[in-house]
Amino acid sequence: MKYQLIIILIFSVFLNSFSQNYLSIKPNAVSYFYATGDISVSPIRIDSIKTHSDSTDYYSFCMIRPINNESFTTKGASWIGKKMVDCGNGMNLFFNKEIDTIFIKTNAQFNESWIMFTFLNGNYVEATISAFTNETFIGISDSIKTISLQVKDNGGSNISNLLNSITLKLSKNYGFSKIINFYEFPFDASPTGYYPTSNELEIIGISNPITGWQNITLSDVYSMNVGDEIQLLRNYYLPLPPSNYTIVNEKTINKYLTRTENFLHDTVTFSIDRCFWRKQQYYPSTPQFITNHDTLTEKYPLKGEFDKLPLEPIFDGSFYGFYNKIDSNGVQPDIIFHGINDTLSPVLVEGWNYIYFNYNLGTTYTNYGFYGDQDILSYNFYNVNGTIWGTPYICDSLLVDTLLNVGLTIFETGINIYPNPANNLIYIDINDKSTSDFNIQIYDMQGRLLLTNQITESNEQIDISIIPQGIYLTKITNQKTSSNYKLIISR
């Protein structure tokens, strides 16, 4: 009898522990979520809390959302919905873009089920606690409740639905470790607006405690110190119909001599020893060379709109937009909006203008214009905070490179891809064919290789009829270097 009593007491303690309220959102932390294939991290940050007598409302930061077919607002709902309501009894309420309620029962026990969502026709989504485990994620361990979904008709019978394959994971102390896009749930309509968030996402970082992926800030970007060295390579190409073009190549060595922050710690000033080489040529004219070796001063902000979270609206004084951030080494601005007050309209920005902010290394960029022009700034070498990458330029060699006329890039071989936009065929002209053959690869915007071809003629014809119309990245390489071009296929 004593043994039976002990077993009952142990089971009671276990059951009571399991039925405790778990967190759906950790309000005193920024949580970062990501799904493979997304072009951005999706954060949750509770900006405001409203307390009622029987519940508490939690609001994450606003996002740019459509008002109608032409106008948008900067005060739209988060990807987790307009708000999360903690009812105080273990039930948390989320809301989709139609303001339909989604129920998450945080204190549900193992095998317990509840109605999570109801469709207009009476069908519903049943949620069930299907597992109770201890798991390690982003370097921390916690108790996890796994929530499985099953769609049922209004008579209670199981029916086939894509939602049946979805699971959520609720941790005891850190909120969802696996979450859904509550704003778009139940995913039976096209996504609204321009945000790239997937249906299911997993946690990749949290700010309290600091672990996993963290939002990169300007202080992280411009953290170079005395003795660091960064070398840059810039290639600029501008086609001038029918057959002329301008080429600019630049090589820069930056050695950091001093670093000074102002008393507000919102600006940093560097003294830099700079060695500079530039070649500019308007084909078919003779190239012009410029070299210089001097000391200069550069000043950078340590705070600004870049410090915003991914997907959070930014305003630069003229335009609204938001950043996509995939990892801590790169970022690019995405859709840009322009308008008055809170009503915005999307505008088309010429070409693709990607700015990359890098930990400890400042910025680089890739600009593709609509007319085939491109301007690319990349790293050649760096030695920063003890991390070394690349093969360095030698300043003395750059300064005499003007006379030797060496260091040509693929831009200088005179490559021309036409027509662009193209239909079923493109032609590649190489004016100064080297002894090593060139190769062409065409990628879609997700980085998938669609076509590869060896170029063996100075005027090569490539059949692209198997590729659907759209915008693609074309890479032309040889044994020495490579170059990227934007290709538009229109039929």
Structure description:
It is a single chain. The chain has helices spanning 2-18, 218-221, 395-404; strands at 31-34, 42-44, 46-51, 56-60, 63-66, 72-76, 84-86, 91-95, 101-105, 113-118, 124-137, 140-152, 167-171, 175-180, 200-207, 210-212, 229-240, 244-261, 267-283, 288-301, 314-315, 320-327, 330-340, 343-346, 352-358, 362-368, 374-384, 387-390, 415-418, 425-430, 438-443, 449-455, 459-463, 470-477, 482-489. It contains three helices and 35 strands. Strands 1, 2, 10, 11, 12, 13, 14, 15 and 16 form a nine-stranded antiparallel beta sheet that branches. Helix content is 6%, strand content 52%.
Itemize the secondary structure elements and their pairings.
Elements (H helix, E strand, L loop, with lengths): L1 H17 L12 E4 L7 E3 L1 E6 L4 E5 L2 E4 L5 E5 L7 E3 L4 E5 L5 E5 L7 E6 L5 E14 L2 E13 L14 E5 L3 E6 L19 E8 L2 E3 L5 H4 L7 E12 L3 E18 L5 E17 L4 E14 L12 E2 L4 E8 L2 E11 L2 E4 L5 E7 L3 E7 L5 E11 L2 E4 L4 H10 L10 E4 L6 E6 L7 E6 L5 E7 L3 E5 L6 E8 L4 E8 L2
Antiparallel strand pairs: 1-2, 1-15, 3-4, 4-7, 5-6, 6-24, 7-8, 8-9, 10-11, 11-12, 12-13, 13-14, 14-15, 15-16, 17-18, 17-27, 18-19, 19-20, 21-22, 22-23, 23-24, 25-26, 26-27, 27-28, 29-30, 30-33, 31-32, 31-34, 34-35
